[in-house]
Amino acid sequence: GEDVEQSLFLSVREGDSSVINCTYTDSSSTYLYWYKQEPGAGLQLLTYIFSNMDMKQDQRLTVLLNKKDKHLSLRIADTQTGDSAIYFCAEIPGANNLFFGTGTRLTVIP
Amino acid sequence: GAVVSQHPSRVICKSGTSVKIECRSLDFQATTMFWYRQFPKKSLMLMATSNEGSKATYEQGVEKDKFLINHASLTLSTLTVTSAHPEDSSFYICSARDVTGKSNQPQHFGDGTRLSIL
Questions:
Q1: Which among A24, A109, B20, B116 has most CB atoms closer than 10 A?
Q2: Cβ–Cβ contact B107 with A under 8 A
């Protein structure tokens, strides 16, 4: 079945770049997504990338996709304390709903 | 952008109570809405897919009679946790996809409902 894996924790200092990694097993997804979840809140769509793209940049966010290795990453430049949250990568394999990774808890140290 | 409103945001009630959670798409129509459950420090687990005008599709292991889903209109789906017990305490999140979008377009999420059963 589908499997989406992320490391559980990441700590960075304010102002540094954060890189959150994700690996997935199903290569049929047309889009791959990054969602952000702040404490006690729902999920906010941060960005998504079409599967035939290698990179997508959106302000401080850069998404890299290595389809051959089934590896997705999210880079946050100039990380701020407000970026502290849990970040989920997600894909839609053959089924019609999202399949989420385990989430990476990003802690930004002032 | 698209907004999904989920209500209530928090519920604390006694064991045996039934709790209804509403999920509304505010500025778009959604033929399909999804209900997720999130355990502490865990990822989201899809519970069921709610289809407007028809029965919901439940994931394996989710009790249909325990988690009643109704999707009576293109903008509203409800999840009722019947006779809730402490093990039902969790964070429940709904999501919706714009009916005009393709199946792999992003889902928009509500802010979640934290259910605590005493």
A1: A24
A2: yes
- What single-letter DSSP state applies at residue B88? G
| Rounded CA separation B39/A65 (Å) | 29
Contact state of A103 with B43 under an 8 Å Cβ cutoff: yes
Most confident segment among A36-40, A58-62, A93-97, B45-49:
A58-62
Residue B24 DSSP code: E
Q: Is the CB of A40 less than 8 angstroms away from the CB of B107?
A: no
Say yes or no for a CB contact (<8 Å) between A48 and B107.
no
Q: How far apart, in whole angstroms, are the C-alpha atoms of residue A4 and residue A35? A: 14
- B1: its two tokens: 């952008």
Interval B10-38 mean pLDDT: 92
A61-83 confidence digits (pLDDT tens):
999 999 999 999 999 999 999 99
- Beta strands at A31-37 and A85-91: parallel, antiparallel or unpaired: antiparallel
Q: Is A59 exposed, middle or buried (0-12, 13-18, 19+ CB in 10 A)?
A: exposed
Q: Does B55 touch chain A (CB under 8 A)?
A: no
**CA A52, CA B2: separation in Å to the nearest integer?**
25
